[in-house]
Design brief:
Number of strands: 0
Number of helices: 16
Largest sheet: none
Strand content: under 5%
Structural class: mainly alpha
Number of domains: 1
Shape: globular
Radius of gyration: 19 Å
Order of helices and strands: HHHHHHHHHHHHHHHH
CATH class: Mainly Alpha
Length: 320
C-alpha cells in the first residue's frame, strides 16, 4: 500500500507545486459548480478529512488501527452536545471537539502504542466498541439508539446561516478541510514528519540515532485523533444529527479502503480515495443496491494485480 510516488520524492518538494494550487482552486469551486449536490460534496470533504487523519498514523507512523471511528464518533457527539447544552457557535463547537478528541487520543495512546500490531488492532477496535456502547447506554444524554437529534447550529462567523440546501454547510466544511490540509502539509514536510517516517521504516534505527519514539508516536496519535474528531464534529454540525453509526466498525473499514485506493503515506491519498469511494458508492448503490460492494472489491483486486502505480501513471506524468 505505497503512495503513487515515493515519499522521498514528495519530501524533496517543500514548496507548493502548481498542481496543488490547482487542487485548492478546484476544491473552492466545487461547492459552486456542484451546488445541486452540496450535501454529497460536504460528505466527501468530511470523509476525506477522516481518511487523512487515519493516514497520519497508518501511512506516516506505521500504526495500524481498525477502530479510528472511536475518535470520529467522539467528535460528533462532543460537537452535538456542546451545541445543545453550552453554545451553538460552530467554531467553538469545532474547537471543543478538537480538544476533547485529542485528550481521548492521549489516553488511548498509552495502551495502543504498547505491544505488537495485532495488539494494537484489538485495542483500537475495543475503544471503538466502548464508545458505541457508551453512546447507546447513556440514552438520556446521547439519545441512545435514536441518536442525538435537534442539533441546531448558529450562523458561521455570526453571519452565514445554515440553509436547507446544504450550500453553507458544504462551503464551511470545504474551508475547514483546506485549512487543516495546509497545516498538515507543513507538518509532514517538517523535521517532525521526517522523524515519523524514520520510525515507521525502522524503529530500532530511529532509537539508535536518538529519536524519542514513544513521545513522537504519542504526539502524532493525539493529532490524528483530534483531526478525526474534527471530521466527526463537521458531520454533526452540518447534518444536525449524530447516531451510533459514527462509532461503527464499517466506518473504520470504509476509511481503510479509501486509503488502499488512494495510497498511504501520501497526504492526498485519503482525499483521492474518499472521492473515488464516495462517487462509486453513490452511483453504484443506486444501480445495484445489493451488490455495489462487489465493484469496490473488484477495484481493490485490480489495484493489487495491476498496481496503483500503473493505474495512476497519468497523474504522475502530469505532476512531472
Amino acid at each position: 500500500m505505497s503512495a503513487p510516488w515515493g515519499v522521498s520524492e514528495v519530501m524533496d518538494h517543500h514548496k507548493t507545486q502548481w498542481w496543488e494550487w490547482l487542487g485548492v482552486l478546484a476544491a473552492l469551486a466545487t461547492p459552486v459548480v456542484f451546488s445541486s449536490h452540496a450535501m454529497m460534496v460536504n460528505e466527501i470533504a468530511i470523509t476525506a478529512l477522516f481518511a487523512v487523519a487515519l493516514d497520519l498514523i497508518l501511512g506516516y507512523s506505521g500504526i495500524v488501527s481498525l477502530g479510528h471511528a472511536a475518535f470520529f464518533g467522539w467528535g460528533a457527539y462532543s460537537a452535538g452536545l456542546f451545541a445543545k447544552h453550552l453554545h451553538n457557535d460552530p467554531l467553538m463547537g469545532l474547537l471543543f471537539a478538537l480538544l476533547s478528541s485529542g485528550v481521548l487520543g492521549l489516553i488511548c495512546s498509552l495502551t495502543v502504542l504498547r505491544g505488537s500490531d495485532l495488539t494494537r488492532l484489538m485495542v483500537t477496535l475495543g475503544v471503538s466498541l466502548i464508545g458505541f456502547e457508551l453512546a447507546n447506554r447513556l440514552s438520556d444524554l446521547t439519545g441512545g439508539a435514536d441518536g442525538l437529534q435537534g442539533v441546531l447550529m448558529g450562523p458561521v462567523l455570526g453571519v452565514f446561516e445554515f440553509d436547507l440546501s446544504g450550500q453553507v454547510a458544504c462551503i464551511y466544511s470545504v474551508f475547514v478541510v483546506l485549512l487543516v490540509m495546509v497545516l498538515l502539509r507543513r507538518l509532514v514536510h517538517s523535521p517532525f514528519g521526517a522523524s515519523l517516517m524514520a520510525i515507521r521504516d525502522n524503529r530500532l534505527r530511529a532509537m539508535a540515532i536518538g529519536l524519542s519514539v514513544s513521545k513522537n508516536l504519542m504526539i502524532v496519535y493525539c493529532l490524528s485523533a483530534a483531526v478525526a474528531g474534527l471530521a466527526g464534529a463537521l458531520l454533526a454540525q452540518t447534518t444536525g444529527f449524530a447516531s451510533l453509526d459514527v462509532f461503527s466498525f464499517e466506518r473504520s473499514a470504509d476509511v481503510m479502503l479509501m486509503l488502499v485506493i488512494g495510497g498511504v503515506g501520501w497526504l492526498y491519498g485519503g482525499v483521492l480515495g474518499a472521492i473515488v469511494f464516495k462517487l462509486i458508492q453513490d452511483q453504484l448503490s443506486s444501480l445495484t443496491p445489493q451488490y455495489w460492494m462487489f465493484w469496490i472489491g473488484l477495484l481493490l483486486v485490480m489495484l493489487v494485480l495491476v498496481g496503483r502505480e500503473r493505474l495512476l501513471s497519468p497523474l504522475k506524468g502530469l505532476r512531472s
